[in-house]
Every structure is written in structure tokens, then in C-alpha cells.
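Quick one, T. Sequence first:
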Amino acid sequence: MGKGDAFGLAIRYLEAEDLDELPVESVGESLVRLEGYVQQLEAERCRRIANFDDREGHNVVGYPSAIAFLKDKCRMTGARAKQLVSVARAARRFRSTFLSWKHREISTEQAQLLFRASEQLPDRYPDAETVLLEIVGDTPEETRQILDYWRHSVDKPGVVIGEEFQLQRRRFDFSRKPNGMIDGEFSLPTAAGETLITAIDALTPPPGEDDTRTASQRRADALEDLSRSFLEGTETPEVGGEKPHANIHVDLNALKGLAGGLHETEDGRVLSVDTIR
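C-alpha cells:
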């Protein structure tokens, strides 16, 4: 029996387990073990992609590149195939980082962050690799922060360019949907984004026992509260000689709670009388 057959048998053994018959603690423990196996498999796949790419195996099997081979034969998106080949090339160059990943001293996410750093600063990473692996942190979040500090210390021009890139890509877009909802999306530079998150968090206290809103709904309500607070504040700047405000057109019946008359926004979106009151 070949190695591939043994691997297939192991998968079928796991698939045959009746999970409902196992203690839930055992299922949790198996998830931890599986994550370790998956990480080892990912590291092994990386090793094989690196070997295939280095030996230009794609030419042998009739593909223009290793990326094209992975896209077609492994049914990957171009972005994923490109990422895997990029990581494989970095892993081949930076052996210590690869071995730390292979032996589960760092997670797959941490390894990807380190390999990305090696691509961004290929002249700096070799000298820093050993130290970075020693202080890599326990979580991907800690690793990201450590690498950010390292970049700031060795590549100040690159950091400035990165900040300028963020600034140029900042945006806030919204549109009015046919049903009256306002839909939107945004991208903010790090400092501006953290400012927004801090303000939203301050207006989003822990939910009470009777609060059935989702976390997303609570953040949406906090954004509304933040907007109202600004418009109603004493220091709100005037626009055209008056403070900015949302114009709602209503008639007397609407104020009494009777629908059917006039109760709409400035651009003609009809609001319920309950909302207006």
C-alpha cells in the first residue's frame, strides 16, 4: 500500500466516525489535532510547489507557469495560485522560517506574514530572520504588530509610502436603495479607522438581557447616534448660515400618527409616521 493509499484510509477513518456519539470535549480535541495535521500538510504542499516551480515542472507538463498549472489542475483562482507560489518561493529562500512553520513552532498565518515581510524587504529580512522568529509572538495579531514595528525601524521611507498609499485609497461611498435603505462601504487609513472604531465602541455598551439586536445592528445604531450627536452639538459648524440638519417634510396628520399625508425626506423618500414621531 502506497503513502497516498494510507493517507486516503486515514481520511476515510475520520469520515466514518459518528461525531454525535463522541463526547463534545473529544470533538474539540480532534479539531486541535486536525489543525496541526492541516498545517503540516500545507507546509508539505508548499515544499512540493517550491520544488515543482524551481525545476520548471510546468514546462514538462505543458503549462506556461506553475501558477497556470495550479489554476487548471488544482482548480484554484489565479489569486490563490499566485499566493501559494509566492509563499513557496519565499519558503525555499528562507529555510529557518519554513522549518519553524513545518515543525508547528509558528502557525500558517504567522508564516504567511513572515514570508510577506520577506518579499517586501528582501534585503533586510535575511539579517532579521533569526531574531524575528524568536520574538514572533503567540498569535497572528502579535506577529503582525511585531513586523510593523520592525518595518518602521528599518524602512522609514517605505512606511511613509505605505501611509501615503492608504491616504490616497481612503473613500466613503453610499447610495440610496429603491426600498429607502442607505447602503455604503468605506476604506479608511489606520489612524482614521481607529478613531471611528473608538467612537462606535464608546456608543456600543454591552447588550442588556432584553437587547435582541445583532452586533452589526448595534454598531449601525451607534453610527446613527454619533451622527445625531454631531448635528445637535453646540460646536457644529454652520453651513449656508445655519447648522446642518436632515430635512423631513410632514403634515399635521403625520405628526398625529396618521399615515397617508406628507411624511418624507428631502429627496422624496417616504418615512413611516412612527419614525417621524
